[in-house]
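Incident log, entry 3
Record: Dihydroorotate oxidase (353 residues)
Problem: checksum mismatch between cached and fresh output.
Input:
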Amino acid sequence: MQNNPTPFYNPLLSYEENYQHGPFGDFSNAAPSTEQNKETERFLNLEVNLPFGIPAGPLLNANFIKAAFNHGFDLCVYKTVRTRAQASHPLPNVLSIHPAGQLSANIDTVLADTNYTMPLSITNSFGVPSYNPDIWQPDLADAVNAAQTGQYVIGSFQGTAGNESCIEKDYARAARLVDETTVPILEANLSCPNEGVNKLLCFDFNKVERIAKEIKNAVPDKPLFLKLSYFADDNAIFPLLSKLDGIVDGYSTINTLSARPVTANGEPALGLDRPTGGVCGEAIRWAGLEMVDRLARLRTRLNNHFAIIGVGGVSSTAHYQAYRSAGADVVMSATGAMWNPQLALEIKSNLNG
Ligand SMILES: Cc1cc2nc3c(=O)[nH]c(=O)nc-3n(C[C@H](O)[C@H](O)[C@H](O)COP(=O)(O)O)c2cc1C
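Fresh output:
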């Protein structure tokens, strides 16, 4: 990895400024020409160059997606959209955090600042902003059209509480709007950490089942992934997988682990009204790997072949391989890719070499 890489998302700028002026660093230049993988891999019913990409979040719009495709990320998730506009939380949205080692799943208190030191862990806190569908629909369609052979966009979306009589209807509406852009794969985000740690949707199994069924009714013919958080043991998640057996096509996991980022003075680093934030990067890789391993084991127990997208703390070829060995069909990197836009090309070159 470069020593002082410029991230393609600038954490010092607002979400809107990144949306308008990004991507930055290497992503604002043409990619160096490198040999692509000769052998493709099968993912669902698609041929993908390398099952590696960027999960929902850092790819804000078609400009970011085009840059990611050019730099060899073959599966790119367009940032989670909603059925109506929602503003981002104010700055700071992204801070570096410095846990002593790996983060626990028990909302640890961690020092947060703007020293983005490697190996990097960050907290992100946006509140899942979205533009109106009349803005993101044509832009998402543009991103879908930018895919080259063996590359695909995944459309991430979520419902908004209070939008309609019940949230599952708004999830279904969002799914329909995303489907209209011809995106080939859908992903419903059920694990946003910034909407309240104790009310992550993915922990309410009956609600998740209703949401998944509504989405499938609305868009029956497209693969559907659910973005899940970390579950601490097999028994905690097995009932959910059983309920969704045959309804969804796979799971993307993990989103983030929640923590309390504080300044050197012990003040909430994201502001008094945001005492917790989702943590991503190096400190959560153990949790992503554990979840992938768990899902792979449980899919054998269920005799079900749902697909697994492994996410969390990937910043090297060895991490990519660890996720594949744990059972991930696809691996994705957000924090690692943001600070190393050459990551996909590096992994391809290492695997080919
Ligand atoms: C800047 C940023 C924004 C994110 N926004 C979203 C989002 O809108 N929807 C979502 O499902 N996950 C979102 N995430 C979570 C990532 O998809 C991913 O699950 C998480 O960052 C862990 O991967 P990593 O360790 O490679 O960063 C975001 C992450 C980052 C860093």
